[in-house]
Records
---
Amino acid sequence: MACSKFQYVKHFEQPHDLLKNTFIVVRIDGKGFSKFTNAHGFEKPNDDRGIELMNCAALSLMKAFTEIIIGYGQSDEYSFVLKKSATTYSRREDKILSTMVSHFTSAYIFNWCKFFPDQELEYPPTFDARIILYPTIENLMDYLSWRQADCHVNNLYNTTFWLLVHNNSDEDKTSQEKQAQAHEDLKGTFSKDKHEIMHKFGVNYNNEKDIYRRGSILVRQWNATQLNKQAKKEKKRKSKEEEKKEETKEEKQDITTKKKPEIIQDKEKSVIIVHEDLVDKMEFYERHDLFEKLK
Ligand SMILES: Nc1nc2c(ncn2[C@@H]2O[C@H](COP(=O)(O)OP(=O)(O)OP(=O)(O)O)[C@@H](O)[C@H]2O)c(=O)[nH]1
Ligand SMILES: [Mg+2]
């Protein structure tokens, strides 16, 4: 009786289901990381420990959520792409968003001491998150291109900026003043000007590490069951093609004696990390079989 009196409040909850047949992108971003990275002595402009910790947290998330096919990370942000047919939490927005950002944050904190053994966490880092739905693969590819182009632009700026600051030998200037000077020097400069400035200091931007220039891409691998399914599908497709061509007896023979797909050890949760160029690069998606995996 007492319980039923209160039950009506449940109806105030408004769960929202994400539109079917769309790619779900979850983007997580560090809150106030300009302050957080300063407070924890991160190297400027890129701290390998910080980048590896972000990648470790992302990997942990991708191991927990097997419908995430791609992760893309740079600076203090990570995007995760779920396949179009994903059914994680029945596509409930609040569950997906809150659980993923919570998992990422706790993995970041849980693994902190592995990457920063000499630096205590001064206060708990926080991440925000949003969900964006993309209806077409082209939209999704443009989204990832946009994030990687952002990484490139920011890294080009930051690399030049810190080179100017670190090479400013004016002893009367404080670090703050040197930074203000570098900002001033870079105002209105184009990409080619920044390359020239770097060149003056003997730095060739193209030799900077790929992980800095392009960020990190985590790509899910096929598991054994999927691989075998793929191989069968491919075999079927090929034999259909052959039928159409009215192949010769010899060709038929070749197909029927073709080796059975190899049984590969189950690597259900395996993910690889690459630092490739994906801006407008169809071949990136083809090389990693992403058109199939993202279906
Ligand atoms: N030194 C250093 N700083 C980093 C590194 N990666 C990220 N950051 C800092 O993190 C910031 C990320 O940018 P934003 O997300 O726009 O800034 P934010 O302070 O986190 O602000 P909000 O996201 O709006 O809360 C950069 O501007 C840097 O200050 C790194 O490897 N080294
Ligand atoms: Mg941030």
---
Amino acid sequence: MDLLKTLVDKGLRRETPTREEALAVLATSDDDLLEVVTAAGRVRRHWFGRRVKLNYLVNLKSGLCPEDCSYCSQRLGSEAGILKYSWLKPDQASEAAAAGLAGGAKRVCLVASGRGPTDKDVDRVSETIRTIKEQHEDVEVCACLGLLSDGQAERLRAAGADAYNHNLNTSEATYGDITTTHTYADRVDTVRKAHAAGLSACSGLIAGMGETDEDLVDVVFSLRELDPDSVPVNFLIPFEGTPLGKEWNLTPQRCLRILAMVRFVCPDVEVRIAGGREVHLRTLQPLALHLANSIFLGDYLTSEGQAGKADLEMIADAGFEVEGTDQVTLPEHRAGGCHPGEGGGCGSASAATPEAGEPRTDLVAVRRRGAGTDLAPNA
Ligand code: SF4
């Protein structure tokens, strides 16, 4: 296919595809799917070899958020039966992080619900970062605390944070349909603040919220312009009790096309498969490793992922290798970046092939283990 040849050539040169080319990837048929994966896989291997970076989420503060992001189980008014707790203490967070690091994770993502941190919250998280770094010197720490005020990114950097995550989530044109309590511009501003403070910026999207192909291409082109070092691609987990709880409109094939498009537009960036991997890619997860070079190990913020052991087996079976702490994630020309951003259980599958759009609530398991509970975390 001429389209794919062009996109591979551009990806190897770090040249931006046209919008039409990106849209054409999303419009390819299932018959062409393996050709699309093969082509985007060439770009992925050129920049990242067969390495898979593992990241581990620690939810420092869960639920009770005053914001109204429609996709989020922690939003104002959410009726999802998630765990709710206030700030973990530094030692508790470090203990949770240790489980992921023992499983092979290289980056720990410290996440807190809320609009953004107060200065006291930044103190608290700074203490947590220092505690984790004292106990695990090679770890990369990414903070994800919401909208940042002036000076907060610099303070997190000084405390040892390597990266900051804040997702754009969807296109500027549709942002107001998803969230009303803050704006797309607020989000862009926080990513810029992180960048300016010398933190490795991490910013991505959520697919499956009812957006058009144009919206998806818009948000990915906006991300390319912001130039984060990592781009998490979430697939909406339609939590019952949230406004988007009925949005079951992704197929595994669609997820692969989205990941391929992101890889072609952001060829040399760490593309991470984030929440919804198990729920929406299901048995096609291993194919997605040919497109993304990074995943979360184990559980997500408020839902359970497949067992960490299953993640590691999948990586080995698919012929990939877990990236070590002695390996640099990003290509050399991105040296300014970081060197040292929800899912469901793999429970019993229905024998019948589900139609796209058919709810698969059986695949969504609210997290009951790990941080904020007495049960051991999954890693
Ligand atoms: S995404 Fe963040 S800001 Fe939005 S409702 Fe969820 S926790 Fe709050």
